[in-house]
Amino acid sequence: MPRSHIEFIHSNSMPWVKKHLDPLFKNVIYKTLSLDNDTKEMTAVLKFPKKWNQQKPSSLTVDEEIYILSGSININNIQLDEGSYSYLPAYYHRENFFSQNGAEVLSFFSGKISYTCDFKKFNKNKLIEKISLYQDGWDKNYIGINSPEIASSGSRKKLLRTDPNTGDQTWIMGVIPSYQEKKVESHPVVQECFILSGEIEGNCGTMVKGSYFWRPRDILHGPYGTKTGCTILSRSKGGKLIVDYFDLDKPFDFNSRHNVVVPDKLLKYSRKKTRKIIY
Question: pLDDT per residue over 48-87, tens digit each?
Fold first, then answer.
């Protein structure tokens, strides 16, 4: 079955799984955030130990999209530090793949994880070796992302990828403190988000650093607001992000109810977080 509506869970509350994800990732522990039981597409946080090294040159048979949450990994002599993004197509050969100091990595796999040591051609048009939010900075405009309300607030975005065939997109949004939306919205595509820093409040409650959601298409949501500001990594599945806006029944306030939508097995990872905000 396709992925369930998950809105939202706290990845920091989830235990690490020590069973091998795949022989390529031997000794790498992980947390599965969401999984499509039909296609085996998966979103997970991987934790590489210090001085980790792949056993032999190999490649995955599926695409892997990578964002470094902390620490660093090195693939083919390209150092991916905190804040770095990479898109590695299926059969991209990893001649060298290691982590000297350990790392926590947010990974998106396009299917069932498996590896091969055979050399095969990969789609070079899909390859993105490295984009660094910290080194490259924010985009200077909102071209490529259709989100007029948040764009007009002065918040910033970093478009990482738009698939030339499907239109699927990956981007980072930096939302300014005190931002408050004036509309509710929906999208004709799946939206997937991971909170990289800060916190943001909406119709399902307050998400904090490490919170995650997978929202199917055409689900009405919002409005959102943040006192502290926040940084969010987002993906659309099924095409480019399109926002359909609807008027509010009442003005936004910072007193949202904790009203998550998650499968029963994930409820214990979605409990309300209480945190004192220091200004």
Answer: 999 999 989 999 999 999 999 999 999 999 999 999 999 9
SS3 12: helix
Residues contacting 165, CB < 8 A, separation 6+: none
Using omega within 30 degrees of 0 as the cis cutoff, is the peptide bond preceding 223 cis? yes
Query: How many angstroms from the chain centroid is the CA of residue 59?
Result: 22
pLDDT, tens digit (0-9, with 9 covering 90-100), for 94-131: 999 999 999 999 999 999 999 999 888 999 999 999 99
C-alpha 97: how far from its chain's center? 22
Residues 6+ apart with CB under 8 A from 174: 138, 155, 156, 157, 158, 229, 230, 231
pTM: 0.95
How many CB atoms within 10 Å of residue 107? 20
Between CA 172 and CA 235 the distance in angstroms is: 9
